[in-house]
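Good day; I would like, with your permission, to put a structural problem before you. What I wish to show you is a protein chain and, alongside it, a tokenised description of its three-dimensional fold. Here, with my thanks, is the record as I have it:
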Amino acid sequence: MIKVGDSLPDVTLSEYSEVEGNGCSIGPNPVPVAKSLAGKTIALFAVPGAFTPTCSAKHVPGYVEHHAAFKAAGVDEIWCLAVNDPFVMGAWARDQKTNGKVRMLADGSAEFAKATGLTLDLTARGLGLRSNRYSMLIKDGKVQTLNIEAPGKFEVSDAATLLAQVKG
């Protein structure tokens, strides 16, 4: 399992992007993790799935709400990861009004989740292999802080907790 001090895996995530106007998309677009993290400070949080109750009601809204505070504390970008396809993540981004605040990134085949060892097997509930719920602060591709939730919990990966750690 990934730990503080480790580099994030060099896998490629996907991001669905839209163009104003005709509704024509320019995505999904590849997001190579190592290249996208180079020289940046990223607040990353992962959720078991898009449109799920806790993720939609608490997790994403907290990061959207604290976007300006993260930027003021030196965070370049906020990333949300889920084992969903980029089309679902794009629809969830619209629903949660994350544009310009949180990048909604798809780990469609759970490559990132597997490579970090942060998987959650929900096969018995019909959801397959998912990502565990967690947050981390990343500087230039290396994990600085890692907050992993216990199964079914939402206590340490919220925006307020990670923001306090960034400021600390």
User: Anything to note?
Assistant: DSSP finds six helices and nine strands in the chain. The chain has a mean pLDDT of 92.
